[in-house]
Design goal:
Blueprint (H helix, E strand, L loop, with lengths): L1 E20 L9 E9 L6 E10 L2 E10 L4 E8 L12 E3 L4 H12 L10 E21 L6
Length: 147
């Protein structure tokens, strides 16, 4: 998935966003897993695993915490050491990752917590830009293949 940005003072993250449930109902999500590409903001929660996984030449840290406003727990993989950096978002970039590898790693790291399990039902997959500040436009292109 690729992105381009134009504007000033933009803050946020470009990410894959996966929502899960413990059952097949179409109710609200019960868990969220995010995989950030470019970012200059903070994920929810705290850093729990540094250097959790490397994919496509990028090493990711794992952050986690409760999204009180939405009512579910969130795991966020972000490029190592980039949380809250003051760098401008790049004008363009991409995130090409094997999402399944991240979910397998999350299972390895957090199955004992009782929140994430490979037995959960994937409810929604999104890719996009989560804006937290600034002005401008964002263009996205790409596809998501399920195997």
């Amino acid at each position: 998935m690729a992105f381009t940005t134009k504007g000033s003072g933009q803050t946020g993250d470009f990410a894959y966003d996966l929502f899960f449930r413990k059952d097949t109902s179409k109710g609200n999500p019960q868990l969220e897993v995010m995989i950030w590409g470019a970012n200059n903001s903070y994920p929810l929660g705290t850093l729990t695993t540094s250097n959790a996984i490397t994919s496509d030449g990028v090493t990711y840290d794992l952050w986690e915490g409760n999204n009180d406003a939405a009512g579910y727990y969130v795991y966020t993989f972000i490029p190592h050491g980039t949380a809250g950096n003051s760098n401008a978002l790049p004008a363009k970039g991409n995130v090409n990752v094997d999402v399944k590898a991240f979910l397998t790693r999350l299972q390895d790291l957090r199955a004992s917590d009782g929140r994430y399990s490979n037995a959960l039902y994937l409810q929604v997959v999104e890719g996009g830009f989560e804006v937290t500040g600034g002005m401008g436009t964002v263009s996205l292109s790409g596809s998501i293949a399920a195997k």
